[in-house]
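Per-record layout

source: Cognatishimia activa
name: Putative outer membrane lipoprotein
length: 517
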Amino acid sequence: MTILRAAIIAALSFLGTSTSAQDITLTSPDGAVEISGTLLGFDGEFYRVETLYGELTVDGSGVNCDGPACPSLTDFVADVTISGAAGMADILMPALLDGFALRNGYTVARDVTDTTHFTYVLKDPDTGADQARFSFKASTTDEGFADLLADEADIAMSLREIREDESRRAYEAGLGNMRSKNRSRVLALNALVPVVAPGNPVSRITAAELARVFTGQIDNWQALGGPDAPITLHVPQQESGLLQAIEDRLLKPAGGKLADTAEYHDQMAALVSAVQRDPFAIGIATYASSGAALRIPLSGGCGFAVHATRRGIKMEDYPLTTPMFLYLPARRLPKIARDFLTYTRGPAAQIVIRRAGFVDQSPEEVSIALQGERFVNAISLAEKTVPLEDLQAIVDRLGNHQRLTTTFRFRPGVSALDAQSQSNAQQLARSLELGTYDGRELVFVGFSDGEGSTDANRTIALRRAQAVRDAVLEAAEAVNRDGLNIAVEGFGEALPMACDESAWGRQVNRRVEVWLK
């Protein structure tokens, strides 16, 4: 802190002292250094000030504050503004704040301004004094990012990854690299699921067919093995993060855009209800909000069917997973906000997330006996693509191990981990630092798609496993490596999760799993 303060004071020595048009003046105790500017924020410890020379963060313990905007140091109340996806603001974030308050001995009051604005106030149970105000604006992912860029929000809630143009504007606005691991975090997991009315005879659909349905290229159920009837389409509201996720994950990879005939719904419950009432409807809902509608598994031409299950979403074996993000600017938040964010990654928060109906990120161990379906699928293809001895090698090496639901996958066309996998790397690194797996063998197991030769695919898979291992160990800065027993393996295309004939199938197959003994 002393070094930081010295650096700031050194920078301030170049500033002028005129304060006529400013609302605060910060002065060092000896009066030698003075800075005037507009107060942008105070987190109970640091002032954030806009000056003629740009934005500065100043340690409050090293200066005196004078001016009409100076905050009180004795009865400071942290103010945190959170804006973005209503799908997170309505249930998930309030549930987590309730859990955080209960765990830390605060009482909670909820003040509702209107249908999109509300405030959670955390209070001291003994005095009733406010300790923090978390103000919410429940709107869309787009508006959350816009508020973050306009300095009208401290945290943005998003149902998709930040886009390149948004990331660029954020960087230009001084918010930092929003794609870095420190600027975003995965709060919980969800998934996009196709839903139909109960009784619909179509029992599965390929990702390619689903894309063609929602781009209007397939408009009759007969093309999917159903009745001769037109298909009606139902999707989330326009400009919502969920609709953008549908575009990014499903439609754009297929080279299409949403059909003009699609019906939009502001609420997921309304979408599901509309689908349930119409025997010829299909919608894209979420795993957490599919209600009584019938979920259709995704399949490929080779016979695989991938269901949206809790474990399948955790493992990212289901291809249309949709992580729920919090994006943070490169500035300090109040301590209580930082404590809340730390809480959201802990085991207590994972229980809250699961009870709220979403998929948590707590790692689960799955025995090989519970993975029969994917081994059956692999064996069914063995004579065509996978040597049986490769499957035998997997069983020999991992037969007495448990698969961890923590799995790593990569962005299309590059070797970088996708957003959910980056979060998994941080979670696994923290577990290693805590000694969770001390005394156990931890095996990073790489797999590939079936393109290329068997030997080349084994090499690629091994290199990916090594790269993931290295990334996790790099993130685990405080780990005691003497207590670790880590190995890497590469089995190539030996255990496919989906058909290689489609781009999404190949994407699912390129992965690194973690196994424990």
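summary: Residues 454-475 form the longest helix (22 residues). The chain has four domains: 2-66, 78-182+328-355, 190-314, 363-516.
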